[in-house]
Design brief:
Structural class: mainly alpha
Strand content: under 5%
Number of strands: 0
Number of helices: 14
Helix content: over 70%
Largest sheet: none
Length: 295
């Protein structure tokens, strides 16, 4: 299949885009659009008034390019285009695009390494403030870290997990909820949030956090065991039994689930006047209803 022919309109549009990117100081896109325009001049069948008009637009675009700071540093006399030497000028633009791209990427990585180093230093400083029993100062520093390093993926999740490790559960919850707004499938943030509510003995909120984790990242025997333990705090034996059983269905070797199921089983079956099967039916139904994760 032969490539579509380049028209005078295509070339003018490339030049217009180059000028727009130049105003935004976007070097790479400016050079790329200009190179496309020059290539179009070489490969197209544009003549007469249309070609004259394109050259006029191209002169304006080159003036914009030569006003850009980095281009002025590299080419004090400016990049010059000569009619009849389009191929050579095209190669110059392509090579310049490649070299600038490499230089800008290296500069970006260097800058990022420096920022990450500053981030690490501040994280260590905040941890030392916690150890020194200065939680207020630690909270202030964590807030500044969150604001200044928002461009780094997972920053709030990282802070929330650190605060959870320090036992600063209420402070951690704010960061973890913020992290989950940005990344609803963040496993570390979900796990830490559950741990915070468990540590604060907020049983109902911990249960809701587990259900949300199941919805977002899937079920596991560990999550069912944690749910069973929460129901154990409320002495809801049917729910303890059902969640422990669900954990064992996924992992028959889960010792905690076995222990919880044995602990709940006598109380579940003892309260019924019927057979064991009849007695187990009601809590099993209530358990299914409690953990219907369809939204």
């Amino acid at each position: 299949m032969s490539p579509a022919k380049v028209t005078a309109k295509d070339i003018r549009e490339d030049i217009a885009r180059a000028r727009a990117y130049a105003k935004k100081s976007n070097y790479l896109k400016t050079l790329n659009c200009l190179a496309n325009a020059i290539r179009g001049l070489v490969t197209s069948q544009v003549f007469g008034a249309e070609k004259f008009e394109i050259h006029a637009h191209l002169d304006e675009a080159l003036r914009d390019l030569n006003k850009m700071k980095m281009i002025k540093r590299l080419f004090p006399k400016g990049l010059k285009y000569q009619k009849g030497k389009e191929r050579e000028f095209y190669k110059t633009l392509v090579q310049l695009h490649k070299k600038l791209g490499t230089a800008m990427e290296n500069a970006r990585q260097t800058k990022m390494r420096k920022r990450l180093s500053v981030l690490d230093e501040n994280m260590i400083k905040a941890a030392k403030l916690v150890e020194a029993k200065q939680p207020l100062e630690a909270r202030k520093l964590y807030r500044k870290i969150s604001e200044y390093f928002q461009d780094i993926d997972g920053i709030d999740s990282d802070i929330g997990n650190r605060l959870t490790t320090f036992g600063m559960f209420p402070e951690a919850i704010d960061y973890l909820n913020k992290a989950l707004e940005d990344a609803p499938n963040d496993v570390r943030a979900h796990s830490a949030l559950i741990l915070c509510y468990e540590g604060m003995h907020e049983v109902d909120k911990a249960m809701e956090a587990i259900k949300e984790t199941m919805r977002r990242v899937g079920v596991s025997d560990n999550l069912y065991v944690r749910m069973a333990k929460l129901h154990l705090e409320k002495r809801e034996w049917g729910e303890v039994f059902n969640n422990a059983k669900s954990a064992l269905d996924r992992n028959p070797l889960n010792a905690e689930a076995q222990k919880l199921m044995k602990q709940a089983e006598p109380r579940v079956f003892a309260g019924s006047g019927g057979s064991g099967k009849a007695a187990a039916k009601k809590p099993a139904d209530s358990g299914k209803k409690s953990h219907d994760l369809n939204i």
